[in-house]
Amino acid sequence: MDNAKKIRVLKQFRYVGFAEGTSYLILLFIAMPLKYTMDMPLAVTYVGWIHGILFIVYIYAVFPTKNTLKWTFRRSLMALIASILPFGPFLFDRKLRQQEKEIATESL
Q1: What pLDDT digit, counting tens, does each position of 33-55 carry?
Q2: Helix axes 3-26, 88-106, angle to 10 degrees
Q3: Which residue segment(s) compose the domain that 41 sits in?
Q4: Is it the case that residue 75 has pLDDT exceeding 80?
Q5: Would you list the DSSP string of 72-84?
Q6: What angle, 0 to 180 degrees and rounded to 10, lies between the N-to-C axes of helices 73-82 and 88-106?
Q7: Number of folded domains in the chain?
Q8: Contact 46, 32 (CB under 8 A)
């Protein structure tokens, strides 16, 4: 498989991870406080729906990314665990950036 495709798949996964992680933080630190301190439950409803959709997209994106990049079981499990932790996708993204650099230097 050529390295350009690997980098493209990795970047797509990183974008999904960024969107999912951001929606999770908005849900936890903006929507939830609005619901419980200002009695605005619709904030959680709308942000929760968006986050739920992005969470499902993230989970489904792990598996094709795993197959394309030949991830180990451990790395795949870490990607899945990162999706349920606040700031997890951002911490996992550091590993992904490192892998992207390694793939880019392979092609030179």
Answers
A1: 999 999 999 999 999 999 999 99
A2: 170
A3: 3-106
A4: yes
A5: -HHHHHHHHHHTT
A6: 140
A7: 1
A8: no
